[in-house]
Amino acid sequence: PTPTLLEDYTPPSHELTSVYLDFDLQPSATSVRSKIDVKRLRDEPLVLNGENIDLRSVKIDGKVLKRTDYKLDQEKLVLAKTPESFVLEIETVCDPSANSTLMGLYVSGGRFCTQCEAEGFRRITYYPDRPDVMSVFTVRLEADIATYPYLLANGNKIEDGAVSDKTGRHYAIWHDPFPKPAYLFALVAGEFDVLEDSFTTMSGRHIPLEIYVDPGNASKAEYAMDALKRSMKWDEQVFGREYDLDLFMIVAVRDFNFGAMENKGLNIFNSSLLLADAASATDMNFERIESVVAHEYFHNWSGNRVTCRDWFQLCLKEGFTVFRDQEFSADQRGGAVQRIKDVRALRGRQFAEDAGPLAHPVRPNAYMKIDNFYTATIYEKGAELIRMLKTILGAERFRAGSDLYFKKMDGTAATVEQFIACFEEASGEDLTQFMRWYEQAGTPKLKVLRETISQGAHRIHFMQSTKPTPGQSEKSPVVIPIRWQIVGDNGALSEPKLTLLTGSGTSVTYPRIDEPYSVSILQDFSAPVTLETDATTDDLLRLMGADPNAFNRWEAGQTLARHLIANMAKAIETGVTPPADTALKGYCEALKKTLDDPDFNNAFKAFVLTPPASSEVMQSLEQVDPIALHEASKWLSRAIGDLLRDDLLDRYHALADTHDFRPDARSAGRRALRNRCLALLASRQDPLAATLSQTQLSESTNMTDELAALMALTRLGGQRVETTMEDFYTKWESDPLVLDKWFSVQAMRRHADGVHAIEQLTESSRYQRNNPNRVRALVGGFAMGNPELFHRIDGSGYRFFTDQVLDMDSRNPQIAARLLGAFEIWKKLDDRRQDMVRGELERVIASNPSKNVLEIAEKTLGA
Ligand code: B3K
Ligand code: ZN
């Protein structure tokens, strides 16, 4: 198979001035008739993509083409010679009920729905399925009225009624006046409950809002509706973006390949990112719903009104929209805490990706399957680039650039260059070097050294370097905005400064300071880099206690904890016990100080009390035994629990619920800190923690506390775990979203009979191997969240996991390929485990997998 290359881009040969689609919806044989007004732009063949559909007829200007008039293969229909302008009519048939890929038109829970991004539309009809072909769509849907009472598509409904000559069938016609690429097409048909509300836009237009959910679930969409209205308002206030259609709809479905999809006027959501109530959803679920509802809504401008010229430009809509949803969440829930969450996610997934065999630039220049490029790099690092742009330009010039972009590029399919050019034009700044961030893979390392110069004055040296990544051995300096400040024992000793590092090194000086101080570097994580500094433990402790930048206070604690865990992991691996560490005591004292500080909110304190995950520590190491690392990370939690036991206990009691559940940030922060205390107590196997967890489990009236108690109990272990797990299952048997949580707890906990227990779960009738949420919960949870079993030295974890990936690949290659990404860290493992992973990857390649899985396996292996 040959890769698609950015440099091969050529503009479309034909323009589609309008598209009319007529669907006769039947679960196992849906017929699709399209009628397209085509204008030829260049004297070239018209290439229409198509996959897994039966072609019934092709007509040009009403005349049926003979089989010899066109070329047809598994992937496309080619019309070699076309008139200058003509009407193209195509009839195809597809089988939605047999579509297990969940791309194109498929059936979920007896309802029709679609997923077209990136290349799903070609599973519906033959079409130039590329984002730079934009057209105005009119869509007619016809289906049985009893089974499919609602018929939805993009835009505004212009007509509906009974089909006169067919009893029991009805139809609806939808028109979307905004030209769009095929990937934004959507239709939905089925029985739903509808939650209705409305929003009045800044120019006074009244927009009905409708959320479609499984019957009985309408009240669970109330939070999403509230988040939607807040998002609409926020985008008007902060980015000047107003909604454009006469109606906005969201539909929740159970079977979905990822989180949600921004189809024009008809967003489709994975029900796990839409449905929530106190009893069944955690605070984390509420938070995710808020941010994803906002994200998909924000795409209406950053993605839909201005779309991408080709899929290499994916970050143009995704990085920008992630940045926008992060800013929204920060405004809704507090800046420092949001920044911590975003940086944790970035480090956890994107840094690992950028340091491993799957590293690629934010704008890649080659791919086999575009589905494999919906990555943390394109989304999360892409968002960091926009954030740096704002830092470099300042808020006002950033907004001017954004306004210009939306004005100038509206209705077009744009490139990253065009986006950046708008910011250059609006700000007068030269952003040529900034483009390197889009082109160069790998996380730059920022090295910071202090030097004393004459009369006690100081100099700070900033130096950057980036390691080679696959296919990119030479790296050039990028522009790194560094926010820094001098901090003494009682807080700031200087104003915060912004230094732009553009070459490989630069230095700044500051005058003599007559008291002990430290430098707070990269405040608010002003650039997506790794830091290497000469900071001592004393420096880190000072920053933990006195940095005026809340983010960096947290960061200092994380750095210290990372050192503690890494040292302990080495000690466990080599069998040499480390000397009693004074850093540990200082660290715990600093934690206590933050815990008692009334200036910080509970959500922030909960993060400070959470040491970095072992996966994050792994990145700072060359090679490590993952089990030793996991033990080291457990050791640190236990040590915190030991040293702060009484404080944690007091805090746990003091934070008890006094009012009914509210999902707001403040209440969530309180629960987060309380449950964090419980988790730390449980990690020291405190008998009291068992009692507290049992009580919390039986008395809690919300899922946040219920699940936290359940997890604490599994951490504590013992014979009662099995019955507790069963009781939980029985209680929630009828709620698939809660059962997904049950499966992830199962996936991540200890089991007496090891991997076999997980294997049995995949064979039980409770499991649903066709449902991505369930597979992610069990198989994904196992690979990413159960290092003890996944990395078993007998290889049983890797073997079982690989079997599951291959099994999934036969039905849903996208999900299979995504799961396989769990092996991306394999070069960090010890030699013995590397050999075993290599064996599994070779087995995958030999098994004739899908193109999606093959691409990931080969790249991971470095083949
Ligand atoms: N744009 C979609 C993602 C589509 C993924 C296709 N494999 C959701 C989002 O990012 O908003
Ligand atoms: Zn998106």
TrEMBL record:
Residues 442-534 form the Peptidase M1 alanyl aminopeptidase Ig-like fold domain. GO terms for molecular function: alanyl aminopeptidase activity; metallopeptidase activity; zinc ion binding. Residues 538-861 form the Peptidase M1 alanyl aminopeptidase C-terminal domain. Residues 223-437 form the Peptidase M1 membrane alanine aminopeptidase domain. The keyword RNA-binding does not apply. Keywords: Aminopeptidase, Hydrolase, Metal-binding, Metalloprotease, Protease, Zinc. SUPFAM superfamilies: Leukotriene A4 hydrolase N-terminal domain (SSF63737), Metalloproteases ('zincins'), catalytic domain (SSF55486). Its EC number is 3.4.11.2. Pfam families: DUF3458, DUF3458_C, Peptidase_M1, Peptidase_M1_N. Transmembrane segments: none annotated. Residues 29-184 form the Aminopeptidase N-like N-terminal domain. It catalyses: Release of an N-terminal amino acid, Xaa-|-Yaa- from a peptide, amide or arylamide. Xaa is preferably Ala, but may be most amino acids including Pro (slow action). When a terminal hydrophobic residue is followed by a prolyl residue, the two may be released as an intact Xaa-Pro dipeptide. NCBIfam families: pepN_proteo. PANTHER family: PUROMYCIN-SENSITIVE AMINOPEPTIDASE. Aminopeptidase N is involved in the degradation of intracellular peptides generated by protein breakdown during normal growth as well as in response to nutrient starvation. This is Aminopeptidase N. The lineage of its organism: Bacteria, Pseudomonadati, Pseudomonadota, Alphaproteobacteria, Maricaulales.
